[in-house]
Amino acid sequence: MRKPKILTTIRDYSARLFLSDLMAGITVAMVAMPLSLAIAIASGADPAAGLVTAIVAGFMISLLGGSRVQIGGPTGAFIVVVFGVIADHGYDGLVLATFMAGFILLVAGYFRAGRLIAFIPEAVVNGFTIGIAIIIATSQISDFFGLTAGSVPADFVEKLPALWDARETANLQALAIALVTLVLIIGLRKAAPKYPGLIVAVGIGSAAVALLNLPVDTLYSRFGALPNHLPMPHLPEISWARFVELIPSAITIAFLAGVESLLSAMVADRMIGGQHRPNAELTAQGAANIASSLFGGLPATGAIARTATNVRAGGKTPVAGLVHALVILLIMLVAAPLAGYLAMPALAALLVMTAWNMSEPHKWGEYARARPSDRALLVLTMVLTVLVDLTVAIGVGVAIGLALRLGRRDTETDWKTPKR
């Protein structure tokens, strides 16, 4: 079924439900705004692109999606892919690849491919998620320590020596702001898990930089003022040569968007005891990525952390996601200059925490107790993600994982078949 969930939930909608959705939407917006900025910066894009994606794609995912509580927008999982596409093809190449990925997802939704996620081995998903978390965390070392490293290579193996060579340029004040922000994020999450402590922590760290006049980079000092309006939508420039060149990137973006959105919807189902519509979710992801590209935004997908925040804050229907997008738009329209005060080390601390949560440390013990073949598959996928390429990691991981699954099935069949 590709019917949007909002059409089902709106039948019994009430003022009480709207109040719950309103408060949850505002809470999620406070979490999503700094995250969207930080993800865009880490991806090598303009920070404004993160806000545009959260607003446009976030609205479309809630409007057309198959989950009651899914929140969409730019996510950490895309940082590696987006950075690579921008480096190889420019930002206009990313926009076109995102546009193409949107149509791939629409086709996947039309042909009811949502159930195919069941064939992706869990060890592969866990492996590339941990690998992406490692890449995100290392990408924030420079801002976390306030290093003056010049141009840092994108390649993981080359990046670490470059950062080590710049160790003597570390800014202790920047490091202090990053550590304070990190401690506040952890502390506020434990003390008040239902409230947006994340924005409070980043705000306190950034306020300290402004009030104490510390020599620490801010959003404004590095990127200039954020726009206070959405750009006009326009079609990306399309040519046959460009289309062929960007097909691999578009497939990667579509695959990642589809997998992460469906995983996020499954997590949401467990939290609320619900049942999402996978094909509606893929269709929504397709429409959201097309819309985001038309406004010059980044690839988008369902965001597990923001979706969980929505559930904990009391979100009941897709209206909470619509509110979240509209609140970010309102902040962009009336308070864009304030975002310029956000300190880069505070945003780096936010992304380091995001990377830590992505790796799901509470599941490490479960991974260690898994079958040896599953452990090996997880490690292989993680290593390939970090050292080679996300596309290679997923391709190799899925191929080996399916082979292992078929091997186990044949073994079980042989064991169960009585000898004649």
Automatic annotation (TrEMBL):
Keywords annotated in UniProt: Membrane, Transmembrane, Transmembrane helix
Domain SLC26A/SulP transporter: 18-378
Membrane spanning residue stretches: 21-42, 48-64, 71-87, 93-111, 123-150, 170-188, 195-214, 246-268, 326-356, 376-404
Predominant subcellular localization, coarse grouping: membrane
Mode of membrane association: Multi-pass membrane protein
Alphabetical list of InterPro entries matching this protein: SLC26A/SulP_dom, SLC26A/SulP_fam
Localisation: Membrane
Gene Ontology CC: membrane
Gene Ontology annotations of biological process type: transmembrane transport
Name this protein carries in UniProt: SulP family inorganic anion transporter
Organism: Henriciella mobilis
